[in-house]
């Protein structure tokens, strides 16, 4: 029996509280800055309480836009980022789960060679192959399009590996029973493997959504039209202004808006995310 000591509990809660404060303090300061005019933000010391320009600042970035990013409303950029993140997450999961299904349950020549070729691509991040990828996208007229933002990034060796490892833990008796009942490969995939994989899919969706949402280099190269710019690019554009002071109050408002969708996805899918990582159903 483990003896419970009050000072250990108090110390644990104090450390957790300190960690929460360290994480939340910069976010709180960003929110406070987004509710003040720029003159208040750049003064020393900066106000520590929210100001009265909340609706003014947020309505400007959402509706009218900011001159340094071409007066494109941030709502448009948020939509572009949302489409890109959802497309990348859904595409990666769809391709990876089908690839893992083929590698585990089908017997064909060079099956493992193809798997290791997929796995080796983990050593080649997007930054290494960015020039040939951009050339292919340009030749296919994918610039300034949602297809160009999504398609080159939907292959995922990591997700393929994780789904393969999960499928290897599924008892062979399930496949034999499905075969005896007259179920074909795709019927077995949709009726048995997909329901068993739902927690893994949920966990990967959270990770891949955040991965797609935070993409910077590829959207920077593939989009030249302001209407196709993502919100991460807009944050950088607001900081990198020439011969003038950045509009910090609007920048903080954009940063707060850019943070909301990933936070919402994590909060809404938290239970499935944790379950998919530590308690895979079999």
Write the layout of secondary structure elements.
Blueprint: H1 6-33, H2 38-42, H3 54-64, H4 74-105, H5 111-120, H6 130-139, H7 146-150, H8 157-169, H9 172-180, H10 185-196, H11 198-213, H12 217-222, H13 231-239, H14 248-268, H15 270-278
Helix pairs in contact: 1-14, 3-14, 4-8, 4-11, 5-8, 9-10, 11-15, 13-14
Describe the structure in your own words:
By secondary structure, this protein is mostly helical. The protein has a single domain (59-278), classed as MetI-like fold (Orthogonal Bundle). The chain has helices at 6-33, 38-42, 54-64, 74-105, 111-120, 130-139, 146-150, 157-169, 172-180, 185-196, 198-213, 217-222, 231-239, 248-268, 270-278. Helix 3 crosses helix 14, helix 4 (74-105) crosses helix 11 and helix 5 packs across helix 8 (157-169). The longest helix has 32 residues, at 74-105. The mean pLDDT is 85.
Number of helices: 15
Which regions contain 5 or more consecutive residues with pLDDT less than 50? Answer: none
What structural class results from the helix and strand content? Answer: mainly alpha
CATH fold node name: MetI-like fold
Mean pLDDT across all amino acids? 85
Main β sheet profile = none
What is the ordering of alpha helices and beta strands?
A: HHHHHHHHHHHHHHH
Query: What percentage of the residues does DSSP assign to strands (E)?
Result: under 5%
Helix content bin: 55-70%
Give the name of the CATH architecture: Orthogonal Bundle
- The rounded Rg comes to 24 Å
Overall number of strands: 0
CATH secondary-structure class? Mainly Alpha
Number of domains: 1
What name goes with the CATH superfamily? MetI-like
C-alpha termini separation: 32 Å
Estimate the global geometry from the Cα principal axes: globular
């Amino acid at each position: 029996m483990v003896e419970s000591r009050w000072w250990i509990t108090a110390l644990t809660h104090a450390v957790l509280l300190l960690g929460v404060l360290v994480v939340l303090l910069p976010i709180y300061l960003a929110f406070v800055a987004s509710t003040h005019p720029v003159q208040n933000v750049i003064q020393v010391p900066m106000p520590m309480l929210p100001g009265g320009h909340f609706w003014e600042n947020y309505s400007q970035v959402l509706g009218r836009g900011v001159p340094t990013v071409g007066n494109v409303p941030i709502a448009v950029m948020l939509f572009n980022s949302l489409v890109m993140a959802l497309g990348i997450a859904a595409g990666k999961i769809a391709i990876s789960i089908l690839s893992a299904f083929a590698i585990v349950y089908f017997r064909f020549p060079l099956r493992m060679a193809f798997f290791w070729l997929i796995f080796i691509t983990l050593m080649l991040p997007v930054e290494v192959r960015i020039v040939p990828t951009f050339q292919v996208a340009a030749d296919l007229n994918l610039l300034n399009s949602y297809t160009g933002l999504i398609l080159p990034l939907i292959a995922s060796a990591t997700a393929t590996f994780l789904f393969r490892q999960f499928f290897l833990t599924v008892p062979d008796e399930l496949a034999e029973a499905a075969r005896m009942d007259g179920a074909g490969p795709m019927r077995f995939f949709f009726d048995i493997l997909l329901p068993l994989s739902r927690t893994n899919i949920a966990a990967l969706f959270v990770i891949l959504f955040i991965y797609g949402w935070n993409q910077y280099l590829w959207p920077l190269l593939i989009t030249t039209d302001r209407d196709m710019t993502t919100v991460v690019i807009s944050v950088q554009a607001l900081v990198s202004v020439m011969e003038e002071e950045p509009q910090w109050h609007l920048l903080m408002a954009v940063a707060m808006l850019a943070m909301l969708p990933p936070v919402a996805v994590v909060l809404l899918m938290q239970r499935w995310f944790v379950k998919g990582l530590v308690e895979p159903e079999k």
